[in-house]
Protein backbone atom coordinates (compact mmCIF):
# COMPACT_ATOMS: atom_id res chain seq x y z
CA UNK A 1 0.00 0.00 0.00
CA UNK A 2 2.82 2.40 0.97
CA UNK A 3 4.74 1.47 -2.19
CA UNK A 4 1.68 2.25 -4.31
CA UNK A 5 1.26 5.60 -2.56
CA UNK A 6 4.92 6.48 -3.16
CA UNK A 7 4.62 5.57 -6.83
CA UNK A 8 1.52 7.72 -7.19
CA UNK A 9 3.19 10.62 -5.37
CA UNK A 10 6.25 10.36 -7.61
CA UNK A 11 4.05 10.22 -10.71
CA UNK A 12 2.11 13.26 -9.51
CA UNK A 13 5.33 15.24 -8.90
CA UNK A 14 6.65 14.27 -12.33
CA UNK A 15 3.40 15.31 -14.02
CA UNK A 16 3.30 18.61 -12.13
CA UNK A 17 6.92 19.28 -13.14
CA UNK A 18 6.10 18.48 -16.77
CA UNK A 19 3.18 20.92 -16.75
CA UNK A 20 5.29 23.65 -15.16
CA UNK A 21 8.01 23.12 -17.76
CA UNK A 22 5.50 23.19 -20.63
CA UNK A 23 3.90 26.38 -19.29
CA UNK A 24 7.22 28.01 -18.43
CA UNK A 25 7.29 30.29 -21.47
CA UNK A 26 3.60 31.23 -21.24
CA UNK A 27 2.63 34.75 -20.19
CA UNK A 28 -0.88 35.59 -18.97
CA UNK A 29 -1.83 39.18 -19.73
CA UNK A 30 -4.81 41.44 -20.32
CA UNK A 31 -6.36 40.93 -23.73
CA UNK A 32 -6.27 43.82 -26.21
CA UNK A 33 -8.09 44.44 -29.48
CA UNK A 34 -5.17 43.14 -31.53
CA UNK A 35 -5.64 39.72 -29.90
CA UNK A 36 -9.18 39.25 -31.18
CA UNK A 37 -8.19 37.68 -34.50
CA UNK A 38 -6.32 34.88 -32.69
CA UNK A 39 -9.18 34.58 -30.18
CA UNK A 40 -11.62 34.20 -33.08
CA UNK A 41 -9.53 31.42 -34.61
CA UNK A 42 -9.31 29.49 -31.34
CA UNK A 43 -13.02 29.83 -30.65
CA UNK A 44 -13.90 28.84 -34.21
CA UNK A 45 -12.34 25.42 -33.65
CA UNK A 46 -14.71 24.72 -30.76
CA UNK A 47 -17.74 25.92 -32.68
CA UNK A 48 -16.91 23.56 -35.56
CA UNK A 49 -15.58 20.57 -33.62
CA UNK A 50 -16.89 20.57 -30.04
CA UNK A 51 -19.95 20.78 -27.83
CA UNK A 52 -18.01 22.97 -25.38
CA UNK A 53 -19.93 25.84 -26.96
CA UNK A 54 -23.52 25.57 -28.15
CA UNK A 55 -22.89 27.97 -31.03
CA UNK A 56 -23.12 26.19 -34.38
CA UNK A 57 -22.06 28.95 -36.78
CA UNK A 58 -18.56 30.37 -36.40
CA UNK A 59 -18.86 34.07 -35.55
CA UNK A 60 -17.14 36.56 -37.81
CA UNK A 61 -14.21 38.66 -36.70
CA UNK A 62 -16.57 41.64 -36.47
CA UNK A 63 -18.88 39.61 -34.22
CA UNK A 64 -15.99 38.72 -31.92
CA UNK A 65 -14.76 42.32 -31.87
CA UNK A 66 -18.22 43.47 -30.84
CA UNK A 67 -18.37 40.91 -28.03
CA UNK A 68 -14.88 41.81 -26.88
CA UNK A 69 -15.57 45.53 -26.83
CA UNK A 70 -18.85 45.01 -24.98
CA UNK A 71 -17.18 43.00 -22.21
CA UNK A 72 -14.37 45.52 -21.91
CA UNK A 73 -16.83 48.43 -21.79
CA UNK A 74 -18.63 46.68 -18.92
CA UNK A 75 -15.35 46.38 -17.01
CA UNK A 76 -15.15 42.60 -17.27
CA UNK A 77 -11.83 40.73 -16.89
CA UNK A 78 -10.43 39.29 -20.12
CA UNK A 79 -7.05 37.56 -20.45
CA UNK A 80 -4.95 35.77 -23.04
CA UNK A 81 -2.20 33.19 -22.68
CA UNK A 82 0.72 34.14 -24.90
CA UNK A 83 3.63 31.89 -25.73
CA UNK A 84 6.71 34.05 -25.65
CA UNK A 85 8.89 34.19 -28.75
CA UNK A 86 11.91 31.91 -28.61
CA UNK A 87 13.96 34.41 -30.60
CA UNK A 88 13.45 37.61 -32.56
CA UNK A 89 12.52 35.70 -35.72
CA UNK A 90 9.26 34.38 -34.23
CA UNK A 91 6.36 36.48 -32.95
CA UNK A 92 4.55 35.63 -29.69
CA UNK A 93 1.52 33.38 -30.22
CA UNK A 94 -1.86 33.48 -28.46
CA UNK A 95 -2.55 29.93 -27.25
CA UNK A 96 -5.63 30.46 -25.11
CA UNK A 97 -7.95 33.01 -23.59
CA UNK A 98 -10.51 33.43 -20.86
CA UNK A 99 -12.98 36.02 -19.70
CA UNK A 100 -15.89 36.48 -17.35
CA UNK A 101 -19.24 38.14 -17.98
CA UNK A 102 -22.31 38.57 -15.86
CA UNK A 103 -24.06 35.26 -15.24
CA UNK A 104 -27.42 36.91 -15.98
CA UNK A 105 -28.26 40.45 -17.08
CA UNK A 106 -30.90 41.29 -14.46
CA UNK A 107 -29.49 43.62 -11.84
CA UNK A 108 -29.70 41.29 -8.82
CA UNK A 109 -27.10 39.05 -10.51
CA UNK A 110 -24.52 41.85 -10.59
CA UNK A 111 -22.10 40.09 -8.21
CA UNK A 112 -22.17 36.76 -10.06
CA UNK A 113 -20.01 35.96 -13.08
CA UNK A 114 -19.89 33.17 -15.63
CA UNK A 115 -16.44 32.21 -16.88
CA UNK A 116 -15.41 31.15 -20.37
CA UNK A 117 -12.07 29.58 -21.24
CA UNK A 118 -10.76 28.19 -24.53
CA UNK A 119 -7.33 26.86 -25.46
CA UNK A 120 -5.54 26.16 -28.69
CA UNK A 121 -6.05 22.37 -29.00
CA UNK A 122 -2.28 21.87 -29.10
CA UNK A 123 -1.94 23.45 -25.65
CA UNK A 124 -4.46 21.43 -23.70
CA UNK A 125 -3.22 19.43 -20.67
CA UNK A 126 -0.10 21.58 -20.41
CA UNK A 127 -1.02 23.79 -17.46
CA UNK A 128 -2.15 26.77 -19.54
CA UNK A 129 -5.81 26.43 -18.58
CA UNK A 130 -4.96 26.48 -14.88
CA UNK A 131 -2.84 29.59 -15.33
CA UNK A 132 -5.61 31.40 -17.18
CA UNK A 133 -8.43 30.42 -14.85
CA UNK A 134 -6.41 31.21 -11.72
CA UNK A 135 -5.69 34.71 -13.06
CA UNK A 136 -9.36 35.20 -13.91
CA UNK A 137 -10.46 34.11 -10.43
CA UNK A 138 -7.92 36.40 -8.75
CA UNK A 139 -8.89 39.42 -10.83
CA UNK A 140 -12.63 38.80 -10.43
CA UNK A 141 -12.16 38.62 -6.67
CA UNK A 142 -10.19 41.89 -6.63
CA UNK A 143 -13.00 43.58 -8.53
CA UNK A 144 -15.50 42.68 -5.83
CA UNK A 145 -17.47 39.87 -7.44
CA UNK A 146 -18.74 37.18 -5.08
CA UNK A 147 -19.62 34.09 -7.15
CA UNK A 148 -18.37 32.49 -10.36
CA UNK A 149 -20.41 29.95 -12.29
CA UNK A 150 -18.97 27.52 -14.84
CA UNK A 151 -21.46 26.37 -17.48
CA UNK A 152 -19.79 23.46 -19.28
CA UNK A 153 -21.11 21.92 -22.46
CA UNK A 154 -21.05 18.12 -22.30
CA UNK A 155 -21.08 15.96 -19.17
CA UNK A 156 -18.19 14.06 -20.80
CA UNK A 157 -16.11 17.26 -21.10
CA UNK A 158 -13.85 15.98 -18.34
CA UNK A 159 -10.94 18.26 -19.15
CA UNK A 160 -12.95 21.39 -18.41
CA UNK A 161 -14.78 19.86 -15.45
CA UNK A 162 -11.54 18.71 -13.79
CA UNK A 163 -9.84 22.04 -14.50
CA UNK A 164 -12.57 23.89 -12.62
CA UNK A 165 -12.61 21.36 -9.79
CA UNK A 166 -8.83 21.71 -9.34
CA UNK A 167 -9.28 25.42 -8.76
CA UNK A 168 -12.00 24.97 -6.16
CA UNK A 169 -15.26 24.88 -8.11
CA UNK A 170 -17.91 22.61 -6.61
CA UNK A 171 -20.10 20.39 -8.79
CA UNK A 172 -23.69 21.60 -8.60
CA UNK A 173 -25.90 19.83 -11.10
CA UNK A 174 -26.39 18.53 -14.62
CA UNK A 175 -29.04 19.75 -17.04
CA UNK A 176 -29.67 16.71 -19.17
CA UNK A 177 -30.09 16.87 -22.96
CA UNK A 178 -30.70 20.61 -23.11
CA UNK A 179 -28.65 21.09 -26.29
CA UNK A 180 -28.70 19.45 -29.71
CA UNK A 181 -25.45 19.66 -31.67
CA UNK A 182 -23.89 17.33 -34.23
CA UNK A 183 -27.20 15.40 -34.22
CA UNK A 184 -26.86 14.36 -30.58
CA UNK A 185 -28.31 15.56 -27.29
CA UNK A 186 -25.85 17.39 -25.06
CA UNK A 187 -25.89 17.88 -21.28
CA UNK A 188 -24.76 21.00 -19.45
CA UNK A 189 -22.76 20.77 -16.22
CA UNK A 190 -22.73 23.68 -13.79
CA UNK A 191 -20.10 24.29 -11.11
CA UNK A 192 -19.76 27.17 -8.67
CA UNK A 193 -16.95 28.95 -6.86
CA UNK A 194 -17.27 31.49 -4.04
CA UNK A 195 -15.08 34.55 -4.56
CA UNK A 196 -13.67 36.57 -1.70
CA UNK A 197 -16.14 36.83 1.18
CA UNK A 198 -18.81 35.07 -0.85
CA UNK A 199 -22.18 35.24 0.87
CA UNK A 200 -20.78 35.98 4.35
CA UNK A 201 -21.22 39.75 3.95
CA UNK A 202 -23.12 42.33 1.91
CA UNK A 203 -20.96 44.32 -0.54
CA UNK A 204 -20.70 48.07 -0.24
CA UNK A 205 -22.68 50.01 -2.84
CA UNK A 206 -19.66 50.89 -4.96
CA UNK A 207 -18.74 47.25 -5.63
CA UNK A 208 -18.10 45.81 -8.10
UniProtKB/TrEMBL annotation:
CDD domains: NAT_SF. Residues 26-192 form the N-acetyltransferase domain. Pfam families: Acetyltransf_1. GO terms for molecular function: acyltransferase activity, transferring groups other than amino-acyl groups. It comes from the Eukaryota. InterPro entries: Acyl_CoA_acyltransferase, GNAT_dom. Coiled coil: none annotated. This is N-acetyltransferase domain-containing protein. It comes from Heterostelium pallidum (strain ATCC 26659 / Pp 5 / PN500). The lineage of its organism: Eukaryota, Amoebozoa, Evosea, Eumycetozoa, Dictyostelia.
Amino acid sequence: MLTTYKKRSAAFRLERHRLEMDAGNIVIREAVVDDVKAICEIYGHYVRESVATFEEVVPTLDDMLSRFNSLKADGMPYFVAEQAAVDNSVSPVIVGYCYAGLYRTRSAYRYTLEDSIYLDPNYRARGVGSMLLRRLIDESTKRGFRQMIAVIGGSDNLGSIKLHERLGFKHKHILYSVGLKFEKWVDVVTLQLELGEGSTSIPTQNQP
